Amino acid sequence: MNTDNTQDAYIDTNTLIFAKSLIYALEDMLGIPFVLDKTSFRETVFSSPFDMIAYIHFTGAVQGDYLLGLDEVLAAKLIEVYEEGMSKNDLREMREDYGGFIKELLNIAVGLSIPELEQSFGDLTHASGILIYGEMDLPDVKSGRVLIESEMGKILCGFSLNLAQVKIGRTLEKILRELEKITNEAKTACKTVKTVLRLFNSASIAVTLDGKILPGCSHSPASVVGMAPEQDIVGMDITTLLDLNSSDSHKLNHVLQDIKKSESFSVIEIPLLEQTEFTNKQGKVFKLDWIPVINDENKCLEKLLVVMENISEARLQKP
Hints:
The chain is α+β, with helices and mostly antiparallel strands. It folds into two domains: 3-179, Chemotaxis protein chec, CATH 3.40.1550; 201-317, 2-Layer Sandwich (Beta-Lactamase). Helix content is 37%, strand content 24%. It has ten helices and twelve strands. It has helices at residues 3-30, 72-78, 88-93, 95-121, 172-179, 193-200, 220-225, 238-242, 246-261, 312-317, and strands at residues 35-36, 42-45, 52-59, 63-70, 125-126, 130-133, 142-150, 153-162, 202-207, 277-279, 285-294, 301-310. The strands form two sheets. Strands 1, 2, 3, 4, 5, 6, 7 and 8 form an eight-stranded antiparallel beta sheet that branches. The chain has a four-stranded antiparallel beta sheet with strand order 9-12-11-10.
């Protein structure tokens, strides 16, 4: 097993899960729709251009952080205390209010996200959120980061994972193989029924440019498509995982072939599918969201992250 590739895949998928959890939490709590900026995803040491950073550190068999960055103005707007022309001093006086909200938002998003990570690494312990204003010195650890945005502004979502700190005295390969078999009861803290149902019907995977599933996924992708949770899907074609009907399978394969033939793409040139909904042979409908991962050194497309959501029930309920 290539430890670096496995770590990258876990970082990729859990960054997206965290970002999606923040989107769901913001919509549930405030009714404000945020969306993923697909072109913003990067694998790098976390840094933020914003003046406010909140993070939660987790420990256990592995350790790492869930992080978010945003401007104080946006934080104040989210709880409707910002007024045009407000001075920095006025903003500072309200830090307790909007800072408290951001920490609550982070706690909820982490509560929604961390069960996915625990499926692979067992129980993890995390403390309450920590809030920093201004610059923050962060460890030199590879992270995933992606922006979510609305008309009000942008929030930077980050996730870091350090597999080098595994505390069990066995090889990493054996640990990952055994811990993949662990099942955990669903966590209930800070979850609304609406959000839980939506999250249980979605999963994230990383795939190569020819559609092969990379290591680093948990049980969720198999469960979402109706396979046994313990089934090994690493190396499987995404079309095989989804068991698409012949028409949709052809469309998906055609785009993957076009991507594989090309040596490099700029983000805006990547021929990702305009079609986002696909039907499999059992009549299940899946919505696929594609996020390109660009290598910062050579600026080439390195792999694709795919957020899968089973929307079959929603389609049946449509009039």
